[in-house]
Amino acid sequence: MNSNVRIVLVRPRNPLNIGAAARAMANFGFSDLVVVKPYPPVWRETVSAVGAEKLVLAAKAVRTLEEAVDDRHLVFGTTTTRRRKLERPLVRLPELPAELRRRRGASRIALVFGPEKTGLSNRHLRQCHCLLTVPTSDDCPSMNLGQAVATCCYELSRGRKDFGRAKAPDAGKLPTSGEIRRLVTNAMEVFDATGYLDFLPAEEREFKLRRMLLGWGLKRHDLALLHGALRFVLKGTKK
Amino acid sequence: MNSNVRIVLVRPRNPLNIGAAARAMANFGFSDLVVVKPYPPVWRETVSAVGAEKLVLAAKAVRTLEEAVDDRHLVFGTTTTRRRKLERPLVRLPELPAELRRRRGASRIALVFGPEKTGLSNRHLRQCHCLLTVPTSDDCPSMNLGQAVATCCYELSRGRKDFGRAKAPDAGKLPTSGEIRRLVTNAMEVFDATGYLDFLPAEEREFKLRRMLLGWGLKRHDLALLHGALRFVLKGTKK
Fold it and tell me: Global pTM?
């Protein structure tokens, strides 16, 4: 996803929501925020944009949606789709990345979010190429603004391979086949000494044991613990 | 995804966040919310759970994480993975549905979220089968609690086919091939009358015109408009 993504908030009422949108954008590597006609006391009162302060300072306020999307190739207006006649193509959020691949020429896109209470008006939606909807339950269709922005930003960066990778697990920490084999041998000795499962033929007993140990996904530090437990059992039988 | 999903919040500080988590859960069709050791003034001060009031009233408060996950088959502890030694398998959120399909026996799962400032402690993470991380940017890795819950619930319900489907578009609204053909014929007459594009052979002119009209994805109501425009042009040439 190389799209140059702009998030546009139309007349948000709650200053916390501008900060929440900014933080979600920063979480997922986006930085282009435009706010249409912010209420003056709301604008730049964004106290909760933890880690996204720079993004909020760089955000632009404009007077109209036209200005906010003027340089965009493709504009998505978010909506719950419940009450309106759909006059243009509807994209469900999980299908957005595929839709963007299909329209390869559209390198600069905007996702537009309406005011908290009303959502985008039909007048606003008419300036969008497509409608975008986050699939939600009919029982509670309308999302919180900051959460809707977070969900959309997540979907757009969902395919990124460079986010959230832990370092490769330390190969030294997995037991080798030989180490597992020695554990099986040790356990079989204890089983023999204690008569545990002695109604099974030795071969089958060993097979079941090995299958179980291989299935556990043991780590190396588990081995010492298991060897110790077996030693403990063996000591008990010798008393 | 038939999993019975519980969302567990450990000691959230901000009452708005309990409401935000509840609303996101309701948006995506989940209802089982448990809060571990809530601060007494925080608990049930959840004013912002628009549409999720029932869910909040049904939420349980418990004293320990153990109680919260006691009946679960599989417990995921959310973390940013940045600062900690990973002592158990790490699942990236986009891979969570595949992980659940792989562990088919785990029908009751819990996603556990830590306090806003600190996240889950190692003591809490040790009670989880797996770590779960939302892949985020290194520049701003830590998500807002409500937004993290929303993103996880979105991913879990992302494959649902019954959410957010608009009614099938009205087939009567798409033009038939015959209607497009009549539009092409009409336009060709106007082109002839006005001498528009007359440096091209008629056949190629018609081919280009048809390709363009088919590519536009016209709706039926566009046809009347275009026929009207063509009539208008024709009238102009006859003056």
Answer: 0.78
